[in-house]
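Q: Convert this sequence to structure tokens.
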Amino acid sequence: MHKAHSLKLGRLGEKIACRYLRRRGYRIIKRNYVTNLGEVDIIASDKDAIVFIEVKTRCSDKFGLPCESVDIKKRRKLLRIAALCIKKLNIDGSKIRFDVVSIIVSGIFRKNVELIQDAFNGDDI
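A:
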């Protein structure tokens, strides 16, 4: 896939994910939060938790589900980024959770969105 198409698909996925999450009661705090370690797609609050959300979007499941690309390396990176965000955004003491939003976009109207709450934590790694 061409890099520009991949970037466009990723941004579309994040937009879809934000809409989906808001409808489920999440409050979006930050989108595309960049640190020197990398980026968090979405930081949100859900009830009593601060949630770091990784969004994975694909055009098909031909090469597996989008969420399957959140491998151990990506999880470790997200844990390090979250620790930095907690410090920078002064959200220490809050319950922290990691969710994954998996999206398959086929055509301009059909979207399959799956939310995996508490997808992983530091104990998994």
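The CA atoms of residues 28 and 89 lie 14 Å apart.
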